[in-house]
Amino acid sequence: MKPKKAPKTKKEKRSRKIKPPRLDRFHHHVRDSLTEKWRESLASVLPVVLIVLALCFVFVPAPVSALLGFLLGGVMLIVGMGLFTLGTDLAMTPIGEEVGVSITRSKKLWLILLIAFLVGLVVTISEPDLQVLAQQVPGIPNMTLILMVALGVGVFLVLSFLRILFRIRMSVLLLICYAAVFILAIFVPKNFLAVAFDSGGVTTGPMTVPFIMALGLGVSSIRSDKNAENDSFGLVALSSVGPILAVMILSLIYRPEDAAYTGAVLPDVADTRSMTMLFLESLPHYFAEVGIALAPIIVFFVLFQIFALHLPRRQVVRIIAGIVYTYLGLSLFLTGVNVGFMPMGSYLGQALASHSMRWVLVPIGMLMGYFVVSAEPAVHVLSKQVYEVSAGVISPKALMTSLSAGVSVSVGLAMLRVLTGLNILWLLVPGYVISLVMMLFVPPIYTSIAFDSGGVASGPMTATFLLPFAMGACVALGGNVTTDAFGVVAMVAMTPLITIQILGLISKIRVKRSVAQAPVLPEAQEEIIEEIIE
Hints:
Layout: H1 10-18, H2 21-58, H3 64-106, H4 109-125, H5 128-136, H6 142-166, H7 170-184, H8 193-202, H9 208-220, H10 235-254, H11 272-309, H12 313-354, H13 361-373, H14 377-389, H15 396-420, H16 425-438, H17 444-457, H18 460-477, H19 481-485, H20 488-514, H21 523-533
């Protein structure tokens, strides 16, 4: 007979109530995750910071106050991006997965499509890259541009879900969509063409990608065939086309040929305390702006929780914590970008373009492009999902190397446009034609991943540093900002379509050579390999 345990004292009971094990585990998980996110954001920002410091000390000396503002802005970017990406993991991705599973259980097509439209609308409004771009576009009010882009994402997310549910080939939809884009481009004002293509790249960033991809996996679960999970790729690709068409239509209404561009102003302060006050005075504005942006997502989640999800209290608390992290992170991110980071990018572009060796813009742009994309938060989200869905056949290293090479070339071409004034269509049309032709020879899974990669590669660092860098260079050279400088994001979104599909062709050749000699593979890998060979 086992001895009876001594009854717990009141102190022990009270202690257990104050610190339940689940809460301790959650705090421990959040602390570890936040540390990891800050490492990722540090890896994203640090290469650009080091390149800028090298330029400032060797080629183009910068005012001390401007450099101090840049470094402080870099710190805010690192802290803000870490909090923001943790928030998306705790809130945006779980909401997307739960909503996707919930609406597919209903088996109601109209409900699935309505939710898809609302998700595309509310998540895009909160996308930090889009907010940064909208502040730099002359001629159109910020919120007007943001809402038009959000409508484009909503409509094309509906189209993406129809593709998954009715098993429509990705290549067919992409051919139709890009044919429509380039036909409409004939009628779009020349001064706004590059802005329209840039809008397609900035909409698929760290806020949108986790949510949309999680939602796509949930919706694809309604199908039972072996290709269902693979078809969850492509949502980001199609969601990038909608904003291009939407902004083209908007430009026909506003006709912004005579809009003037106002460049970012370098912070000019007397001492470190004044610099700190400059950032602190800007924070309330961005806290209010981010609050307005996140409000639709919060309302959407609350309504869905009440009428459909009915998630347990513990999970709701995690999501609320994630929304708080997202709010704080995005506010810090935008403050650091607008006050410290973006002005330095514009200044360096102007200084290098004014230098006798202005051609150095091209190699420096390529160097920045290579390092920037390798640590974009949305890129890591995509590479992780690709690795899981492909059962390890498509490695993150191969994907990242292909992306880095593609983005390096694209930024170099964008700088070449700034130097020469080359029309962006002379680069985009051949690039997309090559990409669309390659679809005929590349395994479908690589095509979907390639077009998704084009969207996620153009993340926060592209919109916050490379675009102002190009704009500053364009101003110094006396060019037209809207025709020559805008288009950096569009170029970054295009070249991965080619490099990832080249990776697909190489994989197809290697698999065909080695499949006869390969040992017995797990069932999941066999399915992926069969698709690659076919």
